[in-house]
Amino acid sequence: MIAMPRLPAVFAAVLACALLSPLAHAEPRLLHSEPSQFGKVLVFEEHGERCMNFNTMVDFGRQTCMSLDDPHALVFSYTRMMLSALYVRPDPKTILVVGLGGATLQNTLLRLLPEATIDTVEIDPAVAKVAQAYFGYRTGPRQRVHIADGRAYIEQAHREGRQYDMVMLDAFDVDYIPRHLMTLEFLRHVRAILAPGGIVVANTFTNSRLYASESATYAAVFGPFFNLREGNRVIVAGRDALPGLDRIAAQAKALQGRLQAQGIYEAGALGRFAAPIGGPAHAQLLRDPPAPEDPPRRAQ
Hints:
Elements: H1 9-20, E1 29-34, E2 41-46, E3 49-54, E4 64-67, H2 77-83, E5 94-98, H3 104-112, E6 117-122, H4 125-134, E7 143-147, H5 150-160, E8 164-169, H6 184-192, E9 194-204, H7 211-222, E10 226-230, E11 232-238, H8 245-260, H9 266-269
Parallel strand pairs: 5-6, 5-8, 6-7, 8-9
Antiparallel strand pairs: 1-2, 2-3, 3-4, 9-11, 10-11
Helix pairs in contact: 5-6, 6-7
């Protein structure tokens, strides 16, 4: 028998309570499972949060979580980073978001920007159904959802000459971003639909074998970009030259009251915009695969 060290009585009592607490071993409570052509969309609750995930409730990452006590709170740091891009473009009137999830970005933008209209492209109708049923997402004159592939929608917008003040790319799973939403060709379409002064805000990986190539690809299309990192990486790039730190600081100060209510504090967030970076010169750009060649044909 291995002897356990003697614990002070108070500490032992606290430890025993923690081990016996139902929260110590609480399992997620499944609320809903929505079938989808891409797999199941699960809605569950645990630790005071309602979450959405794909196929599993195991905590390898969450698509969306919403605090049950404060549904407007931003649970994930990456959403706070993405919304801090308003320091760069504080007054977007037209916003496109690729990826809906539980609509955290969309619902927050709708509250923060009363004059903005928000288009969302979501490939999976099951996600849109769940977002409306369980996460408070509502469509209307200022909030529209389009069931389509994000790239196909953006290419069509380019052909039709539509433009946006802000494009947010959030088609992000735990370990996967669709490759066709990362390439040079795709980002050229994104830049083409940005209005003058428009910005793209992309949620991506802090650590990835494609990190250098992704950086180089964004820099090749947009030039230097802001590289925000906390958990995830958020890239903020512009159609035109990005504003300097003095202007960003002034815009952050003007937004301070509204963004602090969302847990975005000027003192912490502003430092991430110290200086834009470029892509590493040695990195290979991410490109679309070449189109297959037509088979040889007999001359007529």
